[in-house]
Amino acid sequence: MMAIPIEGEIVQIHSYKHNGHIHRVWQETMVLKSTPKIIIGANERTLVTESDGRTWLTREPSITYFHTELWFNIICMLREDGVYYYCNMSSPFVFDNNAIKYIDYDLDVKVFPDMSYTLLDEDEYEQHKEEMEYPPVIDRILKANVNKLISWIQQRRGPFAPDFIEAWTSRHRLYKEMHNPE
């Protein structure tokens, strides 16, 4: 069985490409929920390092959602005008060496506060599918999971449920207070 992080612990997030190359690293994410299947985390102004060495800081607080049986992960970005969701089509995660790790499969779904959504990076997906020789089974799994993700959005399931953000942002506040008592 895979080790899982402790709630309240700070971990990294490592995104890879199908060829095994590192794609992006998020320096610090606080674990809010940790089970053998799901990790929910939070980060705010965390350092992100791109594969070419460029770095940037995330702008807004976000809640992250990872699952061991789903081929997508979800970043819920808390902006002044509402919650925006960035959904990466990806392999299910593994937790290894204090990092949440997954393979990023290019396709992304951006969801707006009104729950409208748009599928992004289809060209990049087709290009990488050829270059990195994604097996047909991966292509089928990813397409099925795009449909599953869209049904979650339409049914307001998981991170798209109305009370999800409030529940996890208040948990994050609680953990921050526990780690930084005045």
Automatic annotation (TrEMBL):
As recorded in UniProt, coiled-coil segments are none
| Cofactor(s) needed by this chain | Mg(2+)
Domain DUF402 per the UniProt entry, residue ranges: 19-157
This entry's Enzyme Commission designation comes to 3.6.1.15, 3.6.1.6
Q: Which Pfam families match?
A: DUF402
Q: Does the keyword Zinc-finger apply?
A: no
First-level EC class: hydrolase
Q: Which reaction does it catalyse?
A: a ribonucleoside 5'-triphosphate + H2O = a ribonucleoside 5'-diphosphate + phosphate + H(+); a ribonucleoside 5'-diphosphate + H2O = a ribonucleoside 5'-phosphate + phosphate + H(+)
Positions that bind Mg(2+) 2: D106, D108, D121, E124
Q: Tell me which residues bind Mg(2+) 1.
A: N88, D104, D108
Q: Which residues form the active site?
A: R24
What the entry lists under HAMAP family is as follows: Ntdp
Its function?
Has nucleoside phosphatase activity towards nucleoside triphosphates and nucleoside diphosphates.
Q: Which family does it belong to?
A: Belongs to the Ntdp family.
Q: Which NCBIfam families match?
A: PRK13662.1 (NF010183)
Name of the protein in its database record: Nucleoside triphosphate/diphosphate phosphatase
Native species: Kurthia zopfii
What taxonomic classification does the UniProt entry list for its organism? Answer: Bacteria, Bacillati, Bacillota, Bacilli, Bacillales
